[in-house]
Amino acid sequence: METVAGIFYLIVAVVAANIVHMIIPRLPLAIYQIAAGIILSLLPLQATMFRLHPELFMMLVIAPLLYNDGQRQSARQLTRHINTILSMALVLAIVSVIILGLGLHGLIPQPFTLPLAFMLAAIITPTDAVAVKSLTTNVNMPENVNTALEYESLFNDASGIVLFNLALASLTDGGFSIGSGIGTFLYVFAGGIAFGLVMGFIIIKLRLWLMSQYADITSIVVPIDLMTPLVVYFLAEEIHLSGILAVVAAGIVHSILYNRLQLTSTEMQVVGAASWNIIRDILNGLVFVFLGATLPQVLHGITSTVLLEAFEIGVGLYLVMTLIRFLWARFGLVKLNFADYQQSPNKGAFLLAIGGIHGTIAMAMAFSIPVAIHDHVTTFRNLLIIITTMVILISLVVGAITLPRVLPAKRRGYSDDEFQAHLVEAVQSAITHLQMKYGDHKNQETGIVINQLTSQMTEMTAINQEVYETILEGTQQVEMATVDQLNSVGQISDATADFYQQHVTRLLSFNGHHLFRNLFTIWKRRIKRRRFKRRMKVQKAKLPATKPLTFARILKEVNLTVEQYLSEVQTPDNVNEVAAVRRGYFNRQRFFNQHQTIDDEVVMSLFVEAFQAEHSYVRSQLNDGQINQTLANALNMRISTDEMVHAQSLD
Hints:
Blueprint: H1 2-23, H2 29-41, H3 54-71, H4 75-80, H5 82-107, H6 114-124, H7 129-136, H8 143-173, H9 178-213, H10 218-238, H11 243-261, H12 266-299, H13 304-330, H14 345-354, H15 360-367, E1 372-373, E2 376-377, H16 381-406, H17 416-438, H18 443-458, H19 465-488, H20 494-509, H21 515-541, H22 551-569, H23 575-592, H24 600-623, H25 629-649
Antiparallel strand pairs: 1-2
Helix pairs in contact: 1-2, 1-12, 2-12, 3-10, 3-11, 3-12, 3-15, 5-6, 5-8, 6-8, 8-9, 8-11, 8-14, 9-10, 9-11, 10-11, 10-12, 13-14, 13-16, 15-16, 17-18, 17-24, 17-25, 18-23, 18-24, 19-20, 19-22, 19-23, 20-21, 22-23, 24-25
């Protein structure tokens, strides 16, 4: 039960950090998530005493994230950038480990023996794909540098893990063979890629076969896709291959599937993409929350002297790694084509150096150091974990401070306010189209469609309570005027009119926070009603007897006059408040008309017509130059998504 509670607390911390980041987006999201993890670990709860199990963490968190990153890669682009991948993820990783290991052993031979120095160097060399993306989400990183960083972080995890295992084997066995080490490296590295490609191909064939045999397999294929990284990683590690490289390779093979699918299974692709988006966001957050949650455990019982020493070593290692990365790019050991991007070589190399952010993969490797070797406690284990933590935090802080200051903010070509305003206009154009074309015809079905369409306008927009209450008060006055008119011509009785007034009065008493103003309005309406009844008493006696209207018919007459009033008072500034009032009246009428049969075919055709009107609005705005192509694409995507959701709700 404590495990379940711990997972729950971690997810709550992720959500809390995301909310704080939305409110105060001054720092990268990763910083807020690390802070949330630290706060979580300090709570006096048994379920928050987290322990990092490296193998489980790599399989359940890191493997799905890297698999999803692999799925979003283009096989053609990977082929084009194969030299960049080999240079950054393989050669640079090996060179960095050699330089850092020899430097540590040369400067601090005690306690850093050669195997131990190489082990620490292997731990801190890999960059973290999740950490890199977290710091570059809101900045416009040059494409050439961003591509190099992305491919490096995808593949150099395996390089670091293989080199770490070689150093660990040397430490435990007391010897190291260059030939054996190279052979092991090639087996683990190349074997992991080959295994992932084969497993990815087999799973693709399974999915394609299922799609060819059965019509609706979303509930089968999507879970298979979600389980793929776990299975591939586990099997690869069982035969001592790189599980990380295997899941990346399997993901890349799966990216080819989407090119073959095209539109053959739209629902499956949409459901799969939505599922992965949710999982990716949660796992991304868990990575940094878990990092923050483990920090107090790492620092527990550490003296200030040891902490200062670890900080100094961490700073030195980070500076040397950053310098190596800078020189690697500056002297063309990785081709970034600075001239093609009209970019200063120094700035491009600097960005590549600072962009080498380290994360939880390094932490997981540090925690995987055995507690004891040959029945002797590894006294250096805590020191290596602390140094690794320092390197991770330094790289995150430096990147978080530096990148936003040297790079322009990422721009979408439109603001959230512009998107929301044009979405509202598009929906309103569809509502107006339906009202003008059908009027009272198909009233019930049209009302259903209009009611659903207004949710597009109101779900992401705050309602101005003052404006809403003012409009609602106006509609209630229209209601009573309509009821009085029907009462004056004998279509409803005095008792029914009085009952309706009491109904409206009761609603007004719950409307808003203006108690005294509402009480005064209620008192004034009652006096007006009494005067009206006395004045009409003689006149109604002369009217011929008529069949009284049903309550449902009264509501219909009232709603028609209310709708006319709302159309008259609606402006671009109060469209959301008008929509909220309109929905309230529609839902009330629908409640009293539950016995009426709804024509689903008519509703579906009206939905199609309404969404066509929304797309037409976007197209006309684009043609008139009122919006740009980026905003038009975003609006059309949102409208198409809403269209699909509404269509599925009618099944």
